[in-house]
Amino acid sequence: MQLQSNFERYQREVLRIALSHYVTNGLSAALGLLLITGSIYLLLGEFAAAAASVGVVVCIPPDQPAPKRGKFWQLLPAFLIGLPLFWAVQVLHAAPILLGLLLVPASFLAFLAGGWGKRGLPISISVMFAMVFSMAVPDHTNSATNLATCLYFTLGAVFYLVWATLANAALNARYRVQMLADTLMALSKLMRSQAQQFSPEIAAETGKRAPLIGTLLQQQAALADQLQAARDILLESPSSTRRQQLANMLMLVLDMRDHLLVCNLDLDTLKSHSGHEPVLSALRDILQALADEIDALADALMLGRMPLPFASHRPQLENLQWEQSGTTPTNGAPPAILAMGMSSRIGLMNDDSLRLITLARGDVAPNVSLVRANWELFVSPTVWSWAPFYALWRWNAPPLRHAIRAALAIGTAYAVSLALPWGSHDYWILVTIVVVLRGSLAQTLERRNSRAIGTLIGCVVAGLLLYTHITPLLVLLVVTLAQAVAHAFALKKYLVTAVAATVLGLLQVQMLNAGPSPVFDVVERMLDTLMGVAIAWAFSYVLPSWERGQIAALVTRTLAAQTRHARVALGLWQLQAVDNEPEIQWRLARREAFDSLSALVQATQRSLSEPRAVRPPLEPLGRLLALSYQLLAQLTTVKTMLLQQRGRLTPHEIDLPLQRTAQAIEAALGAVALPPQTDQPATTVLEWSVLGDPFDGDLSPWLLRRLQLADCIALQLRANGDQVVRELAAQHR
């Protein structure tokens, strides 16, 4: 039974990968390569097809699932920058010294595209591919032949720009579904990790909980990135009912993420009571069941099936035996009351899950006004701007340092390649550096290992293919398949990409200029790759941009985002608003809060691969991250009470506490002076005995408690932020 279960789970995972957006995108890119190069092969011959394939390959890296608007302009820089460099390498082909003098500054400019952030990295790779693969083209002494080669390159690139733009538009509906399904699976993964927090054996005082909290932080950061990628596609032009339906489901996922975050509140207090096990075990089982149902919904969306409805878990929540949690206050709070509050939060997740199913089935109409009000504000900009480069010209700017580091590595590798006895394939070392060397040591180390192992495997595969002397048409088909795999898994599983890219590179060179000894080419490839990996690894320590250099700025950004979120979430004015403006402002503030935390989590995680002497202060950073999510959870609970339970709140009792708490949090996190105190305290000091049933009665005491806790967390958060900054400053001395 266990073996069968594992096999079924493996089948399900393989099917999810096969139906994912990145595999679809990889197949689209490969089909474009096949159609373009195949057509040119039939019309103009083998060499023309090989040169055109370089133009296609250069334009493929930035071709990722994207909104329809701006897709063509997203791809265009790769061609516009790559073409003149491709031609320049052709002209200098017979002059190695001059070619080297071109490669170094051109590499510097190419890697400066990192100033555009995540969008810039594919452009850097494309520009480098244009130069490196141009070196693989046979040496031509005739300028007319060079011009013809560039013309073939242009044909391949231009045709692919058109193909990718049209394919992205044709696949837009499919990408919307796939992005939503991937987001749902990321949410269910986070739900399962959160459910483990409810396990009785993971007690607050043991060391078992620390790794789980680290996992939760990483999954929260991954979900934040996935949500933004989904927003860019799902919230673009929600003009049809189906688009509105999917976009509304994404908005529900955002709400479920908030409810899931709130599930951590009071958990430690409740677990410290000896009678917590039955209730927490039941809540854990319900949360895991909800995760299974979310996964089933994602699978149904991917397969194009009508999702099956599922029963509400409300009856199970209502039948929980609260008295088993005890009634004696622990740490000042009655565990039974806290358990009821936690049950209420999971109940909200249950309700949102039910709404997701009904929306997916078309049983209810989507909230059109909310979707249309959000789409323009939450989609990432698609225009290219020079503004990011204005701030690069300072010595400690990571993109500038990486561009210098990469240019030096390329120059060194080129010099080494010229000195090698088999210098006929000098570009192979350069390709390895282009794909391995990254802006951080952690990413470089990860790619170093994957590239070395993947190249060895790919060389064996390519060697067998070359040894059999397969026909040019079959070479083209294998290149197409390798391109599909390499592009699909570049961001997901680089080891797979390394294997496919090695096969692609060897066969691409075979198409351009078949060597005299295919087997020796494979041996060269292995040796060149190992040298390229070694050079990239060595230069990752040259002008390093250690993560600690940006931690202080990320901490400042996080505290500023928390301050703005608190100000918006605690605004009583939102209850009297007659439009969606308060909701939009809160969602914007919430997104920035999660995005800033995601960036800080990822930087902290990358720093673990750096030398111990240059790591940032990890202990206060960990506390800062945990406290930041706790503050978000407290304020999210307050926001939920204000919006959903407004009829059960007493306005004259909560108005001043809301104002004073917002001011106190802003003072704590933003170093802003508090206004003069009034005779009335910011919040009333509550006796826990006044906390009533959260399912019935006045919720004002619960709200006041959340405000008190948020105020205390903000003070601790600022203290940890100051400690991080102080220790970072001490490291720089």
In short:
The protein has 733 residues and is mainly α. The chain is built from 27 helices and no strands.
Core attributes:
733 residues
Description:
With 733 residues, this protein is an all-alpha fold. The chain has 27 helices and no strands. Helix 18 (427-436) crosses helix 22 (518-539).
Low-confidence stretches: 203-208, 324-332, 672-691
Mean pLDDT metric? 81
**Tally of DSSP β-strands:** 0
> Strand percentage, roughly?
under 5%
The radius of gyration is 29 Å
State the order of secondary-structure elements, H for helix, E for strand: HHHHHHHHHHHHHHHHHHHHHHHHHHH
- Provide the structure class: mainly alpha
Report the major sheet.
none
Q: Give the N-to-C terminal Cα separation.
A: 61 Å
Supply the number of helical segments: 27
User: What is the 3D form?
Assistant: globular
Helix content: over 70%
Lay out the secondary structure:
Blueprint: H1 2-18, H2 21-44, H3 46-59, H4 71-91, H5 96-111, H6 120-136, H7 143-170, H8 172-197, H9 209-234, H10 241-262, H11 267-271, H12 277-303, H13 314-318, H14 335-361, H15 368-378, H16 387-390, H17 398-419, H18 427-436, H19 441-467, H20 472-488, H21 494-513, H22 518-539, H23 548-569, H24 581-607, H25 618-644, H26 651-670, H27 700-732
